């Protein structure tokens, strides 16, 4: 009984204690998977690395063989589970949330966990946030599916899982919330915002409990910049916008070029390229955090930083472009720090004697992240949280806005995630009407005051209609015609005829949203549906007419 009440409550597009508590639980489930994922990587790396993600101390032969072996194992596991389950990462999560309320296939998630762990253990230039987001969304959707929650609540909880995944990856709960709203859901609604915020906090706290409160940018020293730097920051932002456009274009070029090949040879080619880079420039291996360490320790070594930048750029483009499971954000952060540190070489002439390499490294990260992902606000909050430095806010805003506008207006750049979705043929666009209706469970607006009659006898139906209130709908059922709505046909005026009109009814699950009902009825712009219990399709719970959906779209849309 309490579960039924919970489902009815969650069908409403409103903030509730129940939804907030479920958001916390979703955050805990996501954090569990992500902590397990990170511990797995740390355990295996500790067997052969002195410092996590630092492959420079490995003997050359081991360093070269590891990506090859890992690529082969990833390909074998993907072949074993089926390459049809090899759609992974943040783009796939966006597609599932937009078009399937966040329901995540289990085999895809298994591929993401195993493949992502192998890629990160062996030094591929991919980030851990892609697998984290995928697993977080899966954990949340599993919770919603287990409780048979309405799909509108499942959609929100999947967003909670994504937020927990980002927060657990980088220890940035506020940036995680903004990322979900800006990149994944692409909307800001208070009743969605609150549970997602709680899930992000939960994910961050759980991660801090296991791994501590440190962040990847803790080593970087932030120095205040005078106003004389601002014109140069505008130029830096423009350059970062151009680099982001070039990065996205080249990544899509690699994806399109190797598309004719099947996944197995593609992954092996990725392993070969990673091995070559590992042999030549071992500093470019790993998720990108080792590049940050090098930028901090050797900010004046322009030759070394430039070599690592070029190698890491190639390693990232070919790893992601050829299908190695992993995220894009981690490497982009590392690349941004390297670019920003190189830009600081010229900025030193503005402030001689001041160590500003760390500040420019962070600004490079912010600008590249904003322009690549089309997420300026998420980039700004990431910088604020990772540095805990208020001095960085104004310079970061200058670089971020300049980079974003340059990439968008001068180059026509689009979010790399959306470009990947378009190429893969995974839809993510929904109409404004559908988006509004997705937020309301069908149980919130169905008419529960109805009468059900198991008979096709016209006299009995007429007598039942006569005895009933004219406002109460009558649903009749017989084996031949199924469920139908019976009502007087006012166009028939003959006293001798039994003037009854029948409207065929199609069934819809109590777990559905008004968007699902809209899709069924939108062609006729009329009719009705009967709502059956998800757990017992013989139990009719209510009736929903087209007029009710039309009323919500025209009158209540602003409330959604």
TrEMBL record:
**Topology versus the membrane:** Multi-pass membrane protein
**Keywords, ordered alphabetically:** Chloride, Chloride channel, Ion channel, Ion transport, Membrane, Transmembrane, Transmembrane helix, Transport
Q: Does the keyword Ion transport apply?
A: yes
**Which compartments is it annotated to reside in?**
Membrane
Q: Which residues cross the membrane?
A: 21-44, 64-83, 104-126, 156-180, 192-212, 232-255, 267-285, 305-325, 332-351, 357-380, 392-411
- InterPro entries xref list: Cl-channel_core, ClC, ClC-type_chloride_channel
Q: Which residues form a coiled coil?
A: none
Instruction: Check the record and name the Gene3D superfamilies matching this protein.
Output: Clc chloride channel (1.10.3080.10)
Question: What protein name is recorded for this chain?
Answer: Chloride channel protein
